[in-house]
Design a protein that fits this description.
Layout lengths: L10 H14 L3 H31 L3 H4 L9 H6 L4 H16 L4 H9 L12 H7 L12 E4 L2 E4 L1 H9 L1 H5 L1
Antiparallel strand pairs: 1-2
Helix pairs in contact: 5-6
Length: 171
């Protein structure tokens, strides 16, 4: 089901938006929908982080200590299926880490959004999928990453398993 969405936009912004659409050969509906998805994902991610912090405080660190890592059992499958989104994000992480020595959220997003130069790591819905890889929840992909001061790192609870399958991600 789709609904009509209308809003008022500054003339200058609309003109530049239409120019950018033309340059990128994209449809406004798809671009606006992707912006909305990214906004929703970022909002939920912030809220999740807030509630997770509160839960961590209340449980006196039991939350993280007992969390064994849902992704641990999924990594072997991701490693062998290079078309999967999780594989592509992990692959992009390892490539950037090898190239730069560290990985920022911005660099990872750029790598996963560049279909021309990095088709093997292209993920159309990077923001929502990356958010799903930062926590273990009933419907998440499983926690793989943590973000510390804008640097992306592999979560310590699954690092050993991920390193065991690293060769599949960096081929």
């Amino acid at each position: 089901m789709t609904n009509l969405f209308q809003c008022n936009v500054n003339d200058d912004i609309l003109e530049k938006f239409n120019l950018a659409l033309t340059i990128n050969k994209e449809e406004s509906k798809e671009v606006i929908e992707n912006f909305m998805i990214q906004y929703i994902t970022n909002s939920f991610s912030k809220t999740t982080h807030t509630y997770k912090s509160l839960l961590k405080e209340k449980s006196n660190n039991i939350f993280m200590d007992t969390d064994t890592g849902k992704a641990r059992g999924r990594i072997p499958k991701w490693a062998k299926n290079s078309h999967q989104i999780n594989h592509k994000i992990v692959r992009a992480f390892y490539k950037l880490e090898r190239q730069l020595g560290y990985v920022t959220v911005a660099d990872l997003e750029k790598k996963c959004s560049d279909i021309e130069n990095s088709p093997d790591t292209y993920v159309k819905t990077f923001a929502s999928n990356f958010a799903q890889m930062k926590f273990d929840g009933p419907k998440s992909h499983g926690k793989v990453f943590e973000v510390e001061n804008d640097k992306v790192v592999i979560w310590k609870n699954i690092k050993e398993t991920l390193e065991e399958y690293k060769e599949f991600f960096i081929r």
